[in-house]
Amino acid sequence: MGETTRALIGVFKLRIGVVIMLSSLAGLAVTPGTGPGAWQTLLFALAVLLSSASAGAFNQFAERDLDARMGRTSRRPFVTGRYQANGYWLAVIGLLLLVSVAAAILATNTIAALYVFLGAFTYGIVYTVWLKRRTWLNIVIGGLSGSFAVLAGAAAVDPTLSPIPVLLAVVLFLWTPPHFWSLAFVYAREYAAAEVPMLPVVAGNKTAARVIFAHTLTLVLVSLLPFYYGLGWIYLTGAMAGGAYFLFTSYKLLRHPDIPHALANFRASLLQLTLLITACVADAWLG
């Protein structure tokens, strides 16, 4: 992989974008009704990816001063000067968002496209501009960006929204804080130096571990509810397996609030979400 490709993947946060895109497809898969055709689904998935990319690039554009003060982010292209933070980049970011919304309308409907837009707006403006530097609740409210992706997928099938995709959107909302707080736990000193009020910075390790565990417990319990509303055993198996492991590592973090256990919990959160999304799609196709 070339340097330019790596830089662009980083600037547009395409790894996160792929997760957001898969979350939207999970919302589409679990929604009762006749979904869009193959080409519409492909175009819709691309729209969600482009929307997420625009929000990710704007995040790095707007936070370049913070990124310069943190070792984890100090090599990002807007910090090093590889890419200049100018009007050209703002135009590219805006055009990406415009194209993504237009593609979502073309592939599905205006309600799904609205959710696609709201996901990018929540991450790019609400989280990045309004909340991140002001309150430890930044990532709690910012977690709605993933929820909007699920709702976008659901609205592509049925704009009125049924209980299962709404519950899945709630799961994504609850998943984001313990996932990100675990990472913030690892880099708490850097966030403190950059004066970003992440939970481990403002509350300390022990309190942060308690909140993470409580969030994870709530997340796991809510993640089981779609089974009650009609998803099958494939979904339940994935939700229970990933949820149990995430809850186990969160409990270990509660008992030992240190960096190694926080890093293990961060990785467990990724596994839990991967199993959950995979189980959603597999249950819809095979259940």
**Structural domain count:** 2
> Mean of the pLDDT scores?
95
CATH class of the largest domain reads Mainly Alpha
CATH architecture of the largest domain: Orthogonal Bundle
As a percent range, the share of strand residues is under 5%
Low-confidence stretches: none
Number of helical stretches of at least 4 residues: 16
Number of distinct beta strands:
0
Instruction: Please report the distance between the alpha carbons of the first and last residues.
Output: 38 Å
Structural class: mainly alpha
Question: What is the H/E string?
Answer: HHHHHHHHHHHHHHHH
Rg, Å, rounded: 19 Å
CATH fold-level label of the largest domain: Tetracycline Repressor, domain 2
Helical residues, percent? over 70%
Instruction: Please tell me what the overall shape is.
Output: globular
Let me know the largest β-sheet.
none
